[in-house]
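Q: Can someone sanity-check these two? First one:
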Amino acid sequence: MPRWLAGTGHNGRVDPEEVTAEAVRPLRRPVLVQRWEDLAFLHWPVDPAVVAPLLPAGTRPDVVDGRTYVGLIGFRMVGLGLFAGPGLPYLGTFCETNVRLYSVDVAGRRAVVFRSLDASRLLPVLVARASLRLPYLWSRMRLRRDGDVLTYTSRRRWPGPRGAATAFSVRVGAAIAEPTPLEHFLTARWGLHTRAYGRTLHLPNVHPRWPLHRAELVRLDDGLVRAAGLPDPGAAPVSVLYSPGVPVRFGSPAVVR
């Protein structure tokens, strides 16, 4: 039996929680506040067996219809700050592009696992790497808007691989009244998993329901997915979405294993 299937269902692990459009776990005391703006979500299906070795101990690939996904997400981080805020006006606002996978832990909590997080501010990169061991990387980045087309560009500076880059553009379309089950699965994520100092952690987050739009891929020249240790998708993404953004709060991490 593949490792990513071992122990699922009724073999000792809790079944995954339901995919919900809004957070169901209360967050009483935030440790981080921020706002995510102008997000573009690009997703490709990938074999769960390929990503299973890349996930932290105590987690396995989260699947829908037998497939899991790799996401390339570009956006603007705004007003990152500690506790209830206020956010930092300069150091807390920057462009970010991440490559992420989808995970579920032994308690059934669905989350994301970041393979890379390119950001254009060095200080948040250093703090995130030191505190939660998140794979943040310092990059030259730009987010440009021309009418209904947004273009996200990034070229890595440190720590490497230096020069790893991405450039993609999306055209924003109509608002989505009711996302499909797959669109909920890819966007309604109420936490992240990370491996830090010998432990796997779950860091919860809450935010309002996503305002989502259909989007059209205009351009894609990406090297970040491959640089993150994943196969080159080699095809157009199966899902392209846009959101104007949401305010977000993160809570204290809980130990998974």
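And here is the second, same format, sequence then tokens:
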Amino acid sequence: MGKRRRIAAHGSDTRLPTGSRPTTGRALPGRAERRKLARRVKTRRQRNAMKEIPILVTVALVIAVVLKTFLVQAFVIPSGSMEQTIRISDRVLVDKLTPWFGSKPQRGDVMVFKDPGGWLDDEKPPPDNSPVLIKGAKQALTAIGLLPSADEQDLIKRVVAVGGDTVKCCDQNGKVTVNGMPLTEPYIQPGDAPSTISFEVKVPVGRYFVMGDHRSNSADSRFHLQEEYSGTVSQSEVVGRAVYIAWPFGHWTGLEQRGAYASVPDPSPAPTPVPALSNSVSPRDLNGLPRLPSPAELPLVMGVVGLSRLRDRRSHGVFARSKEWMWGMWRSAHDPDTTIPRRDASSSPSRPNP
């Protein structure tokens, strides 16, 4: 019996509710005490979880704001100006990181930019009549990038020409040309012509000429040719480069089409301007007279002249002493009675008497 009791006691589960075993030789807690201890442990874990939830939410919000501001932002497409490439209600991801490192949109890229002025006057969003709480929730979600903003005046178009390019429509085949090279544009909405508006624009440096892929349904740069910069968009107005369609998954695709512009030559360099007169203190006399030093240049000229005279004086003294020494050497070689003067540091050599 004693042996059986010892075996049963050894085989029983002596673990505490925390999962550990007792290390002392004290009596094990009863069933009621173990349940009470288990409830305490469960309550403590729930309290710790409740404390961590606000921290996790705060971290998630900070990450969302950082992503939206500096890295990637999602935009909802409300119009059909970019069909069939981008359809209504598609979500596109816009790269906002690489512009911080000097990256700029190139020909064939799709970019999102602020309204240059008056492009969206006819597309004012309807007023939001939602209750105050719902409106506040929408504004909070918009601030962190989970909802699109209804009042942001942003547009999305494709870059056709960059600064320095000459874009023209149309050639004899009805195609748009950039720097004289006709474009083959596979992204244009089927059935649309490259353009029904004739134009020729020299794009200023630092600006972009943009067009929608649905050319018959896009009020792009072609509709603002009479404005100050011929409908081009400034680099400072660019929000970022649209890289992918993120939603729905069936529309997932890249958006850049740089291959269509691979054969476009670089724009011809601008003629070198004729240099103007220098901005010196004393301008050059156009009549050909010698230029006199100005009061600001006079101390410099005097210093240079003084150093030159001092150098000439020293070199002349050394040359004279060397000449006299050589003359004495020649006379001593032909006349043994002639003595060679000593070259002493305290006295300069003199010419011997004949």
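A (reply): Looked at the second one. The chain has a mean pLDDT of 75. The radius of gyration is 44 Å.
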